[in-house]
Amino acid sequence: MGKKVALVLAGCGVYDGSEIHESSAVLVHLSREGAQAEVYAPDVDQMHVVDHTKGQPTQEKRNVLVESARIARGNIKDLAKLDVKGLDALIIPGGFGVAKNLSTWATQGKNCIISKEVEDVLKAFHAAKKPIGLCCISPVLAAKIFPGCELTVGHDTECEKWPYAKTAEAMKELGCKHVNKHVTEIHVDMKNKLVTTSAFMCNAPIHEIYDGIGKMVKEVVRLA
């Protein structure tokens, strides 16, 4: 039997949910590795809804689980029902939903609060010594919960290629070790079984982002 991997989503769309290309890449690479994805999302309202043609918030209200179901093609469960015992690993892709719907990082940075459901799931996999894969902005969740862990969100010096490099500095302030890596590379914290890659934290061609996520998935499945 292939490994069972929980994929936790945060909505549907880069500006207010899960990054669709990252989520899709995880699903494709899990399939290639012979692993079975079980998709989950919290049954909560989004922080807000963003019109992706304008990048501006609207007055609309949307639910994180309902929106995430779009990516999962309807095959999704409420995060509250996740049982770590039947699962081998956890992956959380990026997108602003991680910083808006799974935590308050978007508005509070390193002083953020992580949703209790999300924190409990991360701590359960960590306590069971089961691997956790995080890409793009989602490594901030581990930075907040697991002091002293090693992570990458790409590079720590801001430039056109790395527009979100200040995230690495905030993670260091939380007591983490940030390791600079190119978009096609991963970092593995063997002690904490954390596998991270930068994905869309980098202004890179989409195939490079896809390849980096592939390496993350392969390593998560190998460690499971």
Automatic annotation (TrEMBL):
InterPro entries in UniProt: Class_I_gatase-like
Domain of life of the native organism: Eukaryota
NCBIfam families, A to Z: PRK11780.1
Name this polypeptide is given: DJ-1/PfpI domain-containing protein
Species, as recorded: Tinamus guttatus (White-throated tinamou)
Source species taxonomy: Eukaryota, Metazoa, Chordata, Craniata, Vertebrata
